[in-house]
């Protein structure tokens, strides 16, 4: 069993000022997940009459993209390729001090404590993150063969969980990796071709309107992304954008 | 009330086609005059929202999630079935129909299951057209794998993230409709009541989870696509927020709840490690394609796996079921794993686990080949357990995973409340007493893309509705009721947290209403659950207020409903004096320990009518008839 100390950002709502609070947590088992450790702390806080720490989570298996905090300065914590909810306490040691903050970005206002509002991502997707196809009699699925390589590449792009860690890790709060992932997925597939230009222009315009910053190629997003999305998606986004503007 | 399943007449192959033709259509210009509320935007709700909006209806979609992409459908791993027969291995609509009906242990409606098999192929076409990146072969064609309960390869997949890719497809279709103004999406809005006016579902009351605002919404029809209720057990493979509140509150407003005791315990999950565990993680069933399940032959054998020689291992599924082997259906695999552990052949520290071993697959396919198929699952396993499954066999144990039961619906997906339709896991419709792997995604999308667009139109065209606004007194009354429950929860100010109650309920459910049930245990569970309910309302501790973001309050509403639903599940299990699929009553088993059905007495759907909290609900029976598939003792030998 370990004893650790948490320094957690507490903020009542989007209008109030927040501050760090310290909480010692005793009796942490290395088999616990990070969020189970917070559950345990919250149960104790509730019993003491202190408001529990609000944090977002749902699937707790690294796929829904809901968990969102910054742990010791890094979105999703210390391990590459692992979301906050998959992080286990065996990655920490007895006596550790752990700082937990919400994502900080203008386009992700704080709702409470560690919970932020990521609806800006939704508006970008609404601007163009789709192929226009009506439900009904789509042609036979095997009528459009797609090479395994392209299909796998498109899959890798589509693996983005929309968590926003890329934005939180970027000093400019840029959403280029998130947007690049969706633009890449469709640019790589024949189904995405007809709307290719409008899509990239509209999504980039929406991204700018939401107040996400520009990309200055620091690569922080790639290093933080729990799903291994890399800068080739940003490069493809740039190419798609330039060719759409030029044509 | 007599239950009318509205199954169309005629031969099974043409029922749906004829029915589609006979149903009334809503004139295109009139569609936009109709408002449809959709609660839940997972696969079922998201696909319905997109399809109905495309047709021209005015759609209001609600989710307690911040985005449709967070719905629990995102977590589905293994794949989605379709009778495409791309592999030329003998698949057909009839075979998918037969497998699903048999897999469900003959407790589903033939007509529904046939329709599901019929539209399955269209689903794949639709998703590919949307840009869903399914796995492909080198030649560019779609790849398939096989799943439990089937001897053909009909499962389409996208690595171990099929649900994610399908949901993102439905989400993208929905986004297109949002961009065109035909869908309005309300995130972080939780439905807390159904509003019924003149016997018809006419709206809902929601709580805005950010601000606490309680608000009414009126419509011409209400669709619930709110997912399953596996979290009654506290520990399950469902997401932490998955809950039954929408369905339960609709039940209290007149929607019958069907087969609540039919829950699926999935055989391949990561075992529980400690009391702090908050959820269980599924290891996709697709792993049973290549992994071999075994336990030590000797009871109480404590040696590590690699020190147990081949001839001292019992590959019990291969031994007991030579023709299906490791690919027997879930209920069978789960029960056998429990049996092995009960007989002290279990492995690992808790002895509540069996091995799932990939060493043969690694020899055959190479490590890279196994990684290609299951890489993300292996990583997930290692992250949770700290063990490397490429080197030591995985330890797995059954966990609650899916609920076949749900709100009763007729062939048109309409509940017993006119104008209230139920889609996806929230209804009870197609899986009988046990769902086959890769069939839930198929059903959710069939409901949303291909069934509801027709049947809803028929309802609106025939029943049409008068104009109504939320100023109607029924809305005011519902709002008051919702506020009163919230106040009551906050006012108790007891000593026990919501989670503590939830865990207590979960343990009772797992021990007595779980993988194996018996009369004495179920009676005991009923008593205990009632006690938990009484204590909950006397001693629950919910911090904070109702006018702010308050996650404990959200949970309190949900757990209050889980307790009531848990009671109904136990009652349903007690009344069904037979074993079938996932419902295993120890008193009713064959000589070799398989579920023993009683078709004479129990070939029916049990649909329960709510009569008040603490009152005995009334049982209504929908008899099931089988014209095309003769129910037999299921055999996977
Ligand atoms: C780990 C896991 C793996 C699985 N793998 C597979 C697989 O490989 N193949 C397969 O076929 N099936 C699989 N399943 C089953 C399948 O994923 C689900 O049955 C299916 O996705 C359910 O979809 P749904 O649309 O009915 O519900 P969900 O996706 O659960 O969506 C529910 C929606 O309802 C909303 N909601 C609920 N209540 C309310 C309320 N009161 N107010 C507002 N909104 C509400 C939620 O916000 C959400 O949007 C898996 C399930 C799990 C748990
Ligand atoms: S690109 Fe990566 S970090 Fe950014 S939202 Fe997607 S998954 Fe999260
Ligand atoms: S809670 Fe779903 S990704 Fe972390």
Please supply descriptive tags for the structure shown above.
heterodimer; A: 247 residues; alpha+beta; Ubiquitin-like (UB roll); Fumarate Reductase Iron-sulfur Protein, Chain B, domain 2; five-stranded mixed sheet; two-stranded antiparallel sheet; 8 helices; elongated; B: 637 residues; alpha/beta; Flavocytochrome C3, Chain A, domain 1; Methane Monooxygenase Hydroxylase, Chain G, domain 1; five-stranded parallel sheet; five-stranded antiparallel sheet; 16 helices; globular; binds flavin-adenine dinucleotide; binds iron/sulfur cluster; binds FE2/S2 (inorganic) cluster
Task: Present the secondary structure layout.
The complex is a heterodimer of chains A (247) and B (637).
Chain A (H helix, E strand, L loop, with lengths): L1 E9 L8 E10 L5 H14 L22 E2 L2 E2 L21 E5 L8 E3 L2 E2 L2 H10 L19 H11 L6 H5 L6 H13 L7 H14 L10 H5 L6 H16 L1
Parallel strand pairs in A: 1-5
Antiparallel strand pairs in A: 1-2, 3-4, 3-5, 6-7
Helix pairs in contact in A: 2-6, 3-5, 5-6, 5-8, 6-8
Chain B lengths: L11 H11 L5 H4 L3 E5 L3 H13 L2 E5 L17 E2 L11 H11 L6 H20 L25 E2 L5 H18 L3 E4 L2 E9 L2 E9 L5 E5 L2 E4 L20 H8 L4 E2 L4 E7 L22 E5 L16 E2 L1 H5 L9 H13 L11 E4 L1 H27 L8 E10 L2 E2 L12 E3 L17 H24 L9 H20 L3 E2 H15 L6 H21 E2 L9 H25 L23 H4 L1 E6 L8 E6 L14
Parallel strand pairs in B: 1-2, 1-9, 2-5, 9-17, 18-19
Antiparallel strand pairs in B: 3-4, 6-7, 7-8, 10-16, 10-20, 11-15, 12-13, 12-14, 14-15, 20-21
Helix pairs in contact in B: 1-5, 3-6, 3-11, 4-5, 5-11, 13-14, 13-15, 14-15
The structure holds flavin-adenine dinucleotide, iron/sulfur cluster and FE2/S2 (inorganic) cluster.
Iron/sulfur cluster binds next to α4 and α5 of chain A.
């Amino acid at each position: 069993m370990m004893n650790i100390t948490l320094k957690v950002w507490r903020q009542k709502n989007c209008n109030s000022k927040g501050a760090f609070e310290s909480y010692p947590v005793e009796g942490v088992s290395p088999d616990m997940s990070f969020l189970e450790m917070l559950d345990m702390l919250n149960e104790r806080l509730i019993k003491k009459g202190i408001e529990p720490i609000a944090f977002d989570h749902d699937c707790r298996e690294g796929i829904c993209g809901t968990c969102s905090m910054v742990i010791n300065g890094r979105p999703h914590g210390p391990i590459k390729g692992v979301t906050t909810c998959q992080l286990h306490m065996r990655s920490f040691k007895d006596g550790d001090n752990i700082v937990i903050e919400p994502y900080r970005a203008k386009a992700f206002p704080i709702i409470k404590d560690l919970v932020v509002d990521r609806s800006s991502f939704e508006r970008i997707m609404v601007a163009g993150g789709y192929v226009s196809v009506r439900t009904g009699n789509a042609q036979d699925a095997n009528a459009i063969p797609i090479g395994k390589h392209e299909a796998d590449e498109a899959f890798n792009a589509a693996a983005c969980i929309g968590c926003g860690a890329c934005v939180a890790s970027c000093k400019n709060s840029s959403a280029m990796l998130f947007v690049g992932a969706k633009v890449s997925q469709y640019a790589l597939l024949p189904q995405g071709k007809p709307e290719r230009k409008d899509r990239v222009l509209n999504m980039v315009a929406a991204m700018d309107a939401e107040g996400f910053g520009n990309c200055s190629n620091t690569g922080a997003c790639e290093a933080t992304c729990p799903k291994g999305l890399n800068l080739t998606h940003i490069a493809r986004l740039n190419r798609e954008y330039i060719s759409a503007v030029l044509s | 009330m007599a239950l009318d399943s509205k199954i169309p007449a005629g031969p099974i192959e043409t029922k749906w086609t004829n029915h589609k033709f006979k149903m009334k259509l809503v004139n295109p210009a009139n569609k936009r005059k109709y408002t449809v509320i959709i609660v839940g935007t997972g696969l079922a709700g998201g696909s319905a929202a997109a399809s109905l909006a495309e047709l021209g209806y005015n759609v209001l979609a609600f989710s307690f999630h911040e985005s449709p992409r967070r719905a629990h459908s995102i977590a589905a791993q293994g794949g989605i079935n379709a009778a495409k027969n791309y592999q030329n291995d003998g698949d057909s609509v009839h075979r998918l129909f037969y497998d699903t009906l048999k897999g469900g242990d003959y407790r589903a409606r033939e007509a529904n299951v046939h329709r599901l098999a019929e539209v399955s192929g269209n689903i794949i076409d639709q998703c590919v057209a949307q840009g869903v990146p399914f796995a492909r072969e080198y030649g560019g064609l779609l790849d398939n794998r096989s799943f439990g309960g089937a001897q053909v390869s009909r499962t389409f997949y996208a690595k171990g993230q099929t649900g994610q890719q399908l949901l993102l497809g439905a989400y993208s279709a929905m986004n297109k409709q949002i961009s065109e103004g035909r869908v309005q999406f309300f995130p972080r809005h939780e439905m807390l009541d159904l509003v019924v006016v003149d016997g018809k579902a006419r709206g809902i009351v929601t709580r805005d989870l950010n601000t606490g605002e309680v608000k009414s919404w009126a419509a011409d029809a209400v669709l619930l696509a709110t997912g399953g209720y596996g979290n009654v057990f506290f520990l399950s493979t469902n997401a932490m927020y998955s809950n039954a509140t929408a369905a339960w509150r609709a039940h209290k407003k007149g929607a019958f709840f069907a087969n609540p005791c039919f829950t699926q315990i999935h055989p391949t999950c990561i075992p529980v490690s400690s009391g702090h565990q908050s959820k269980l993680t599924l290891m996709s069933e697709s792993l049973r394609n290549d992994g071999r399940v075994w336990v030590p032959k000797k009871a109480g054998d404590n040696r590590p796996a690699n020190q147990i020689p081949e001839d001292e291992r019992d590959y019990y599924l291969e031994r007991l079921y030579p023709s299906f082997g490791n690919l027997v259906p879930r209920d069978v695999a789960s029960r056998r794993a429990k049996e092995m552990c009960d007989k002290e052949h279990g492995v690992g520290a808790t002895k509540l686990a069996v091995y799932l071993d990939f060493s043969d697959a690694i020899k055959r396919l190479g490590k890279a080949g196994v990684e290609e198929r299951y890489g993300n699952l292996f990583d997930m396993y290692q992250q949770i357990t700290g063990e490397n499954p490429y080197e030591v066999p995985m330890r797995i144990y059954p966990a609650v995973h899916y609920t076949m039961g749900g709100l009763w619906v007729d062939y048109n997906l309409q509940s017993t409340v006119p104008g209230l339709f139920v889609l996806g896991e929230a209804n009870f419709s197609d899986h009988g007493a046990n769902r086959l792997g890769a069939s839930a995604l198929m059903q959710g999308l069939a409901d949303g893309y291909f069934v509801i667009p027709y049947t809803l139109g028929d309802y609106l065209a025939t029943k049409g509705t008068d104009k109504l606004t939320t100023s109607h007194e029924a809305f005011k009354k519902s709002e008051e009721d919702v506020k009163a429950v919230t106040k009551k929860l906050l006012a108790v100010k007891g000593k026990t947290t919501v989670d503590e109650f939830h865990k207590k309920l979960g343990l009772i459910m797992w021990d007595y209403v779980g993988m194996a049930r018996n009369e004495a245990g179920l009676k005991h569970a009923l008593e205990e659950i009632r006690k938990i309910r009484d204590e909950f309302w006397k001693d629950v501790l919910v911090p904070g207020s109702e006018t702010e973001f308050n996650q404990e309050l959200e949970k309190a509403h949900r757990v209050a409903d889980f307790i009531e639903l848990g009671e109904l599940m136990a009652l349903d299990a007690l009344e069904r004096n037979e074993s079938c699929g996932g419902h295993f009553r120890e008193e009713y088993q064959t000589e070799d320990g398989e579920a023993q059905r009683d078709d004479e007495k129990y070939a029916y759907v049990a649909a329960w009518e709510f009569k008040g909290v603490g009152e005995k609900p009334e049982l209504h029976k929908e008899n099931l008839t089988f014209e095309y598939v003769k129910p037999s003792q299921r055999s996977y030998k």
